[in-house]
Design goal:
alpha+beta; Phosphatase 2c, domain 1; 6-stranded antiparallel beta sheet; 16 strands; elongated
Length: 360
């Protein structure tokens, strides 16, 4: 396919078709037909689409940012409109007053640009896929049993890479530590910060085999200092818990993590583990408080990232939190709970779930 013309009123499609003799020109009458045609094109071919309205340009770019867009107009648009079109992603403007001899070399140039972009896109996809596998490999084993606790996790990235990160590990022989981190923003920069978080996990395990921290709050302060020192441009929300295996008491702290984590008893009773604290990576002098709760056999600690709150956009925030509590209390296992909390999410934000269950 050389050129795809979107024309709602058939005013200019014939003109372009006649002018570009020898060039394959396909004309579609509406937006739905354009999508059907583009869906049938191989993924390696980026369509070149001609539009005559700003609304059509916007629809095309929102649907597929990789589309190459030409704007066709009877006359040169005003400067402000032209700038807006270019900012939206238009690659060229064709005027009715121009000769086809002007359009043909520009179309050839765009075609070559498409070919190069396709090659770059393939390399980029391979790199992202490799990065995705590496990032997934940094997550701990799902369903792992450490002492008499089972750890289960699920992560649904909003893109190929996730800004959510979960880890759990033993510290010495007496303690189990776990956390869920939600890096602000999306994309590669947020995902790269999860590598730093994995390194922090390793340092906690290696350097603090016999814990030197008196509380999870102090652990958050140490993590915050590491992130501040690295001058990151992203802040991190985190829920961090430490289980004392001798007493089966969960000590926990929060750095702006939302929604609140939950303690769910074997009978279905639910308690919110709410704790205030500033995000990590922003304030060098941030102080974090700790709290504690006893865990009985059958109890679970359920931790969500805020992406799951998208499941009930029509409800107010307090009601959505109650929905999560009801779902956590009623679910038989992580698969059922995960299915419920992700059934209606839009995918615009990463969604994650961690369940820590005392087995005996």
């Amino acid at each position: 396919m050389d050129l795809l013309v979107l024309e709602n009123d058939a005013k200019f499609g014939v003109t372009i078709d006649n002018a570009l003799d020898g060039t394959a020109v396909s004309r579609v009458q509406d937006w739905a037909e354009l999508r059907r045609v583009c869906d049938g094109v191989t993924k390696d071919q980026i369509p070149i689409v001609v539009c005559s309205s700003e609304s059509d340009v916007r629809k095309c770019i929102e649907w597929n940012p990789r589309l190459t867009i030409i704007f066709w107009s009877q006359q040169l648009p005003p400067g402000t409109v032209l700038l807006q079109l270019m900012q939206m992603g238009v690659r060229d403007v064709w005027l009715a007053s121009e000769s086809a001899s002007d359009w043909i070399p520009r179309l050839q140039w765009l075609s070559k640009l498409n070919d190069t972009a396709g090659e770059v896109a393939d390399d980029f996809r391979r790199d992202i896929e490799t990065a995705r596998r590496i990032q997934q490999g940094m997550l701990p084993q799902d369903g792992a049993v450490l002492s008499h606790y089972q750890f289960s996790l699920r992560v649904l990235p909003s893109a190929m890479l996730s800004g959510d990160f979960i880890d759990y590990f033993a510290i010495g022989t007496r303690y189990l530590a776990f956390f869920m981190a939600d890096v602000a923003g999306h994309g590669a920069s947020s995902a790269l910060l999860t590598v730093a978080l994995k390194n922090i996990s390793w340092r906690l395990q290696q350097r603090y085999g016999r814990p030197r921290f008196r509380s999870p709050g102090q652990m958050l302060e140490w993590i915050n200092a590491r992130l501040v020192d690295e001058s990151i441009d992203r802040h991190v929300a985190m829920f961090l818990g430490v289980i004392d295996l001798q007493t089966d008491i969960l000590h926990y702290a929060s750095a702006a993590h939302f929604p609140p984590s939950l303690q769910v008893s074997d009978s279905g009773a639910v308690i919110s583990l709410e704790q205030r604290g500033k995000p990590l990576g922003l304030f060098a002098d941030a102080v974090y408080e700790s709290a504690e709760v006893a865990l009985s056999p059958g109890d679970s600690v359920v931790v969500f990232s805020d992406g799951v709150l998208e499941q009930s956009q029509i409800l107010d925030l307090q009601t959505r939190e109650q929905v999560l509590k009801n779902q956590a209390a009623g679910a038989d296992d992580i698969e059922q709970l995960w299915s419920q909390v992700t059934a209606n999410v839009s995918g615009e934000d990463d969604a994650s779930l961690l369940i820590v269950k005392r087995l005996s």
